[in-house]
Amino acid sequence: MTTVSSTLGRIVDGRQRRKSRWLFVIAVLLVLAAAIFALTLVLGQSFTPPGDILRMLLGETVPGTSFTVGQLRLPRAVLAALAGLSFGMGGVAFQIMLRNPLASPDIIGISSGASAAAVFAIVVLSMNGPAVSVVAVVAGLGVALMVYGLSFRNGVAGTRLILVGIGVSAMLESFIAYILSQAPAWSLQEAMRWLTGSLNGAQLGQALPLLVALALFGGLLLHKARDLDALRLGDDMAAALGVRVGQTRVVVMIAAVGMIASATAATGPIAFVAFLSGPIAARIVGNSGSLLLPSALVGAVLVLAGDYAGQFLLPSRYPVGVVTGALGAPYLIFLIIRVNRSGGSL
Amino acid sequence: MKADSLPTPRRWSAAGRSNRNRGLFLAGLLLVLGLLSALSVGVGTRDVALADVLAGLGGRLDSIGQAAVAVRIPRTALALLAGAALGLAGAIMQGVTRNPLADPGILGVNMGASLAVVVGVAWFDIASAQAYIWTAILGAGGAAVFVYVIGSLGRGGATPLKLALAGAATSVAFSSMVIAVVLPRNDIAGGIRSWQIGGVGGATFERILPVLPFLAAGFAIGLLSARKLNSLALGDELAAGLGERVALARAVASLGAILLCGATTAVCGPIGFLGLVVPHLSRLLVGVDHRWLLPFSAIGGACLLLAADIVGRIVARPAELDVGIVTAFIGAPFFIWIVRHQRVREL
Amino acid sequence: MTAHSLSVSRLSAGYSDADILQGLDLAVPPGRITVIVGANACGKSTLLRAMSRLLSPHKGEVLLDGKSIHRMAPKELARTLGLLPQSPIAPEGITVADLVGRGRHPHQGLFSRWTSQDDEAVADALTATRIVDLAERPVDELSGGQRQRVWIAMALAQQTDILLLDEPTTFLDISHQVEVLDLLTDLNHARGTTVVMVLHDLNLAARYADHLVAMTQGRIHVSGRPEEVLTQETVRQVFGLESRIVIDPTSGRPIMLPIGRHRMADNSQIKEMQP
Fold it and tell me: What are phi and psi of C60, to 5 degrees?
């Protein structure tokens, strides 16, 4: 029958159009991230010829370049990219799972939990380095479980979880404020630097645990991508399609928190990257495919660009968290307006 | 949604309190307030003998104890005023918005005042107490209007959920703006950070005096709008049907709340959750009639802030916990409790 | 198409600890349309949720071809039994074809790609629900009636032999209610799909059901052919309402006319009104 076959043709066309759009977006974001990454390496306070950088990367010792690029710029760029990927993917996983852009880890208290633990570790326990990271990850998971548990009443309503998260986050913030008010000057500096989310003093050594966490948890999330996407139709509908809703939620939550907390431990809570990446990615991608990868790439672009702007493009030097924070605040308000007006999701 | 699953209004347990009972509660609460005030003067990181307290109250500064008492008197006065202001402001906001989650902190009003003050200090070099207060009130008012407008967009008007989310989001956004403004300014960072936690320590009568007219105006407007709030509680349509000018009533009552919040924030910094907790507790005692609820919330707020301040002085000896931290630790769990007990449909 | 059997045996289920369903038995006739009716809060939706695994029973079982559905793998079940919940959510901006394609989820493995079979299922579902022309439109822009057809199309793309629907006609005006029920009847006739749905409107239920189930207080009060079920006694016992049952001249099915306390006409007036 001609009608059926033409219908089929339209459907195949539509699907392929969506797929090529998705691939195109991924490609553009990859190029963009790579471009800023390269810019960070090449152009800082001074210009370094790309040839020198290439030679250095191939193992040669190039005077000057080995220090400015090898010790300063490269670790910084690598860490920015990895943290951005983690924040972007972990954040959007939460937003999809709870069907609400406000359900991002930086609003429902998970980042505050990791921050509070890290500040406590730095100021009170005088810890530093990887130990702080471990504490932050564990605390992030703990807070996530607590928020989830507190909002459980015949199932978890996304909005209830957000409000509970806001409450928990308020407590944690005032705990942080208290610790800071008691902190001796030297650890206050360290704690404040950490709290605003900064890539100053980034070292390649920090990148490895982050890379491992990204590979492990990111892989887990991508593995669950299709089930996660089904959750956007509502829990009941997803279940009717054969998704194990509870199990998917637990896995997604552990993976997303793991990523977010690892990144937070490495760079501090870079404000709003987890929150912003998903909606921005949704804007670009439309409904052409999974948001996990596009959002991760948007996160990387945001952190790389924010850090570069904070270092070189603004009148005084700002840590990246301040740049993304100032950028994110108006967007957050814009998003609230849009969500309230349409009652819509991501 | 089926008709039977629509949210039914929360029933407050004190529907029909007799005025005699309310009078007894009022007397009891005033007694508690007196006791707490006495404690607040007598208790602190340093214990002071009763004789010194009395001498200090008489204005003598001979011993350390008496000096401590002299410091604690303005502090106690400020805690009383700020607590009453925030408690009343919270009750007004819950009435105006018909929203159990309304609170100057949650709705972003305190943060608006903070942001305005921070911007004023950092960019416009404001320094005088008057300038502080006006800036804070302006910021509080701006934030309140802003959050309410955002929260009432779309279907269903200003539902508890939308309003709370709009407020919370605005708070988060403002606080990140505060960081962006303060961070490059090392000269003001320390002062602002301690102001931002919210506290009544270091109060002097010189600092309290300039806000008194604002507070007085706020109290007067607030307490006088009790009847209007009672009509508003029935819903806009019904209130209009009863001959109330809804928009005007709302604007006037809100003005009272904004004066109270702005002035309080100017002196103490943002103190959260007090305005949430106190009206709920007061409602349990005296019911939903705003003519009772408002004064009760004011007195209750004073009690709670005093108590929080005293606790803050005791638990962390020899250091002190700022009262803003204590109220957050009492208030946030309360907030979560309310959220948990709201019907799912509403949230 | 082989007819699967779905039955419920001594089922107790509910939220938290309270049992809303209390030891309920039900056999769904294969290849027919079963409609569940009852007063509010009688457990209709709870029953449907338990039958589709959204709710775990406290006691008893839901059996699909003699196997407990709670012991089946979720995707395996979802290939035989589909459910359209009361308020599914359409992600913002999603197109009709994309949304209908989500119904293919249970047929796709972890690594298996989208196949031509999936495309065919979607095309088929769009054709059957007559929304081919809407295929590339965003779901947000559609009217309530169109949207409901999209959701039904999605359930069709799932290609299950049994389809459960929780109040598929709520929010629709009367013409669209009839349209949706006609559509479901088409599917039942053309494909032999077993349809089980909860409906609010007694008269529409009686018109479209092959098998009518009246519930009250977590139990099945009576079930059978609509003529047997929709009687004055049933309406009185299930809904607490006095009524008169007449026969619909169009469908030959019973119609319930409520009797209130007012507006009682005497017979002479009624005769005058008749043409």
Answer: 80, -175
Contact call for A173 and B328, based on CB within 8 A:
yes
pLDDT tens for A216-268 read 999 999 999 889 988 888 888 999 998 998 889 889 988 998 888 888 888 88
Whole-prediction pTM: 0.82
Q: Which residue has the higher pLDDT, B188 or B29?
A: B29
Nearest chain B residue to C200 by CA: give it: B2
| pLDDT one-digit tens code per residue, C200-238 | 899 999 999 999 999 988 888 999 999 999 999 999 998
Give me the sheet containing C194-198, strands edge to edge: C81-84, C162-166, C194-198, C33-38, C211-216, C219-224
Query: For residues C245 and C262, is the Cβ–Cβ distance under 8 A?
Result: no
CA dist C180 and C148 (Å) reads 8
The one-letter amino acid code at A328 reads: G
Q: Are B272 and B331 in contact (CB under 8 A)?
A: yes
Q: Which two tokens stand for residue B243?
A: 């001959």
Query: Chain B window 150-209: which residues touch A at a Cβ cutoff of 8 Å?
Result: 150-151, 153-155, 161-162, 164-166, 168-170, 172-174, 176-177, 179-180, 183-184, 193-194, 196-197
Residue at B31: amino acid letter: L
Q: List the single residue in A with minimal CA-CA distance to B105.
A: A170
Residue B90 token pair? 């919270």
Residues 6+ apart with CB under 8 A from B75: B40, B200, B201, B202, B203, B309
Q: Does A329 touch chain C (CB under 8 A)?
A: no
Is the pLDDT assigned to residue C160 strictly greater than 70?
yes
> Among residues C164, C156, C106, which one has the least CA distance to residue C130?
C156
- B2 CB neighbours in chain C (<8 A) are 40, 170, 200
DSSP state letter for A156: B
Residues paired with residue C246 on neighbouring β-strands, in sequence order: C255
